[in-house]
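User: Some background: our group keeps a shared notebook of sequences we're curious about, and every so often someone picks one and asks for a predicted structure to add to the entry. Today it's my turn. The entry only has the sequence so far, pasted here. Could you supply the structure so I can complete it?
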Amino acid sequence: MERKKKKAIGKKECQKDDVERFNESFATFLEFGYYLFARSEVASQRRAEASKVLEEAHAEVEKAQAKADILKVASETHSSEVEYLQKELREEHEKMAKLRAELALEKEEERKA
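Assistant: Of course. Here's the predicted structure to add to the notebook entry:
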């Protein structure tokens, strides 16, 4: 009988150990699951923040591109104005050169006369 009691006690101890090991394993499993869930939430939050920053950057790029387009049009307008004014200046220089030549001829004729 004594032997049966010892065997039963030994069996209960093994069962206790199994339950305790299961409880510890399950607790570790839950902790790890919570850790993974928390990391997943942090990753989702960071992804959302990065997406927002990316959208803001795209908006800034679009604004800069629009500004660059405006400046390009203004530059082209000014370039055509500069070309026109340079053409007029050349024509004025040519007229002045002709007038100087005529004046020099007139002075030459006056001296001869």
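Suggested note for the entry: The first helix runs from residue 2 to 112. The helical segments are 2-112.
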